[in-house]
User: Fold these one by one.
Assistant:
Number 1:
Amino acid sequence: MSENMIQTKEDVQAAMKRQAEKSAIFLRQDKIFAGITFSFATLVLLVLFGILVSLVVQAWPAFEEFGPAFFYSTTWSPTDGNFGAGIAVWGTLVTSLIALAVGVPVSFGIAMFLTESCPVWLRRPLGTAIELLAGVPSIIYGFWGLFIFAPIVQEYIQPWMIRWLGEPFFAGPPLGLGIFTAGLVLALMVIPFIASVMRDVFETVPGVLKESAYGIGCTRWEVVKNIVLPYTRVGVIGGIMLGLGRALGETMAVTFVIGNANRFSLNLFAPGNSIASTLANEFAEADPTLHIPALFGLGLILFIITFVVLAASEWLIKQGQRKAGGH
Amino acid sequence: MDRRYQKRKLVNSLSTLLSGLAVCIGLLGLIWILATLFIKGIPAMNWAFFTESTPAPGSEGGGMANAIVGSLLIVGLTTIVSTPIGILAGIYLAEFGDRSKVASVTRFVTDIMLSAPSIVIGLFVYALFVATTKHFSGWSGSLALALIAVPVVVRTTENMLKLVPGSLREAAFALGMPRWRVSLDVCLRAVKGGVITGVLLAIARITGETAPLLFTALNNQFFTWNMNQPMANLPVTIFNFAMSPYENWQELAWGASALIAILVLMLNIVARIAFREKTQS
């Protein structure tokens, strides 16, 4: 170590020079490191861009062949090479809306129970159990839906609904499989997502606000209805949109139970198809001239719809959190 | 006055009752699915299940060995590739691009990619990789899964790094450490547990993903270590076998579903416990 000992003026200068060199090296290393991390971060943006471009390019032959009618025509016939997205888009939207109609009230109930009524010691285990529901792979929902849930819907729920509700939406023979059952399975799948967002935004309500309401004699329900919900409205809508985004793009759970029929019907008990289930069923064996481009076209429609819904959800949830941060 | 009070009380009890019922529906769903898997799946898991390859149509016996190995290879490769990418991208968002425009756009897009339809990711990889190499392969399956796993790792890494107190960073800077070493050796090390949680959650997420593998890894009836070939994997095999008319195929599919569910739920629970210890200490 003796050569590093600083004794004379020259030594001081040498040490300063070494230090300067070291700083320069550090600076260069930092630049390289920042560059590497930056390029990986922008990779995500590149992928998004790549997805859009590749879907448009691959789908182009179908758009050229069928024109704008591709987006709403309800013929989908691989045998005569005539393709329109109408049936699949309808199936996608209707199954997702059924999922929301069933899933949102249940999710709201779960969030309300977890934040207002539930004893504190039970909150964590119950919350975890609901979140585990989100961890179950979707193929298992589908498998379970096909073998266990659909027969029960067919046996008990459908005959009853056909009898009391009937035409035009709940008619025909109770098949078990179809758009309605797919919507119910989707509902079970999106409940954990919506419920956990709702619970998180409900927890942002300032205690003082709720206590004031309880203080003037409000019941628990009145507090939720008049204080919690108005305060968290934006975040709640964001959570619902997140569930919608999830439901629209869900593949396996739907493919198992939707019945896979390319026929248009207003009847919700009839078998149908969604965009994702059409892709899952037909892609691997599709003819490359028009069938594959048409399937890519479906993928593009799905991607754009979910992107818009998820972007809206993201923005709304952020808005809700900002409000909570700024009070 | 009294009747109105009664009515308010009634509405309140009703709402509490219904919200409790909602929790029961959620729990019932979870228990029902798990019970089904245990009743139908556990009996199917015998020695042959883990040692023999998938049976030909109509033949007896067989197991899931090729699909288990395929899934391990595909998921393993995905984890090895997407962990460093995700962590580095997360470091950029938290440490370097804090308030820049690029970072906020990336953050937004990453959040959307977390919920983007996985089947479209499969289409993308098909167009990009399978269509150019002209054949299905294990590689392309891993690529598709990596596109799903990376956003999960990015977001957890960034969120964890944000928990690192600024004073720790400043202390390291004051010692003359370069920025990259502060990021890797101080900040990242401080939140190691949280980042590992993110990786575990990413693995849990991709283990059960089926849709992106349908037209990338496809399936293979035979045992293979070659990732350049179509590769058997648990989710796609479950899909094919569950839809088949053969009873022994369906039994194997139940077994495989139970295996995946146990694995995924264990990962979720372990990740949660690890994270809880981290945040409490």
Note: The CA atoms of residues 44 and 251 of chain B lie 6 Å apart.
Number 2:
Amino acid sequence: MDPRLHPTIDPGPDHAEQRAPETRTARVFEQGRSSGPQVPDDLGAVLRSTPAKLIVLGTLVSILVAISGFVATQTVSSRKATHDHLLSTIEPLADASQDLYSALSVADAAAVTGFISGGIEPKAVRERYEQAVAEASAQLVAAAIGADDDPDSARLLSGISGRLTVYTGLIETARANNRSGNPVGSAYLGEASNLMQTSLLPMAQELHMLGVRAVMDTQHAAVRPPWFSIGLLIAAVSALGGIHLIISRISRRALNPGLLLSIAATGLLLVWLLVAGLVSSSATQRAISDGAEPLGTVAAARITAQQSRTAETLLLARRDSTGEYDAAFRQSMARLGELLQSHPGGDAVTDDAVARAIAARNEWMESHERTVAALQRGDYTAAAVLAVGPGPNESAAQFAVVDDALAEGIEAARSQLRSNEDRASQLLSALAPAAVVLTLVSLIGVTIGLWPRLREYQ
Amino acid sequence: MRSRVALMVAALCSVVAVAGCASTPVSPLPRVEVPYSEVPLPERATLAPSPTAQPEMPDCGDPTASLRPDGATTGPTLDAIRARGRLVVGLDTGSNLMSFRDPATGRIAGFDVDIAREIARDLLGDPDLIDYRILNSADREQALQDSTVDIVAKTMSITCARRERVDFSSTYFLAQQRVLVVKGSDIRNAADLAGRRVCIVRGTTSLTRMQQVQPSASILTVPAWADCLVVLQQGQVEAVSTDDTILAGLASQDPNLEIVGASMGVEPYGVGITLGNDDLVRFVNGTLERIRRDGTWAELYDRWLSVLGPTPAPPTATYVD
């Protein structure tokens, strides 16, 4: 590398080409025998020549620039693709599965409630059932959009879809029998409700858990800043700076415009990736902390609230005396309390919704105690009014407050998740094509910077 | 010869080559997994284990002999029920004609229910002062032992085995175990049930008797008799076997069903009462004596069970003192 050496050792490319091949072979053999440093081989000499050095260095630096540019492009576009996939597929599946669970749960509660009252079910209750079944069918289609690349989700969705038709068939058999005055209607209702509680809802819950896990996994894959790519670009800029130093010494000119262009282009890419990568990562971090994490808790709480309500409805519908449904209710309500208390804190709307849900849950527990007390003194009618009647302080109303609040919290957390994910994706959208352009500019700059120096030796 | 062999080898090679071509992987058509769709079973429906050696039936003499009514209207149990103001009755809602939920009114009605209402009328002065607790057949004895109900009025047969755990009133009905099938079925009696699937509620004397009479029947047990009608209508069993009172109630809901075969045995129904509540046993027997005498029993039979034939005389009570 020392330019002072070149007049003595380097005979120039022309001289080197004039050497006879047999001499070179002989020398190599000789070197192989003696391995003495006093007889340098031609290849070493060539490599030590300044133009060769420049070619090798230029090639190495170009390769480094090209690799770092390629890695940056790949990292950025795969990361953007991850964010876009989350927004277009994974998150909609998780959300649809949560709504699917809710719709199925509402449908079964409405079907069972319709039978508690006796006679033809109230019009409002029947409409709630029909609306919930329509909603469940629509959410199945919405969730299917996200299930195309996940065989587990696809299996669950086709399972739910197949059994939902059986479920609605059983409910209609129950209704037809009821209308004909056949008490067997209740048995069909029981069979349908059992299918819902032991098959459909657990599958919907599993689907939801798969969706939530997929959202979390996808986000955690995109939350780390792209350190490897940033490191490569730092290496490329340093190498370009190094070669600029060498060239300026050889040419005795302080600045080399070509290499400076190259340094500027790769440096700009480095700064862009650093800023966009870090800001995008922090947006993803926010999407997790204000979106996915509270969403996971609040969605689980809503499902648990619906399970509690189901247990309470069945307690009345089956006039259960074994305490089985009451125990299921209490267990489920305790879990609801734990979930709401464990809410990690998100944005203000979610926090407020959770606070309202906690208050309504306590009222609901008190109403349930009144229901149980009525059952214990043998007053079934009063218990039924407390549990499924329209009283503003009673179970049905308090459950509605819990459910509405949690639905609102889910909506708020979901919009936090989606807007931050969208921002994380937007920040990267111009960077991938820019990385290609800047890398090409940088490579052209290296060529421009080295070419005149090489020409000087011809 | 040589050339022929070469030809054959060449032919073989080309066949292999063509076969190779044919088996090159073609991207498979997207297939939708079609899950096997099957009609669900009622909650907690299970196949009964094949009958093992029948446990030795305890011998208590005449199990239907109950405490003689003494006309007393007070006693520790009677006072507790009056203090509560309601008679807590254990029954189920899936035994049409005996106890069922009337779809039109949502109220629980039936022959057993009216027996309980007569008891409430005598005890509390109002047949409506009743709180119903829904019990599966298998839970009846436990509910009495735990005193979660005062009485069980639910097609409960009086047996010596049950008498070890609960007490009974005098007999208020005599039922016959028979078989319910779809019209046109080749099952004509219990003997035809060998290797066929039959629905019976678990924890009943019907189950025990079927396992004695036809041990090779395959038995699906469910929690309530209405569930047996569901599985019969869904084609998951070929027959239901229990007391004619219950079978008549199931047949009345589906004109495609018929009751076949001779009686497999007589089932004396009694009101189940917690062991030791002797005052309540004597009081209930007093009510049963009244309804046998004043025509209420015949009236109830006419209202609910006329499908079984002309009204018989009420079963006579046997007493111990």
Note: Residues 131 and 316 of chain B are 29 Å apart (CA to CA).
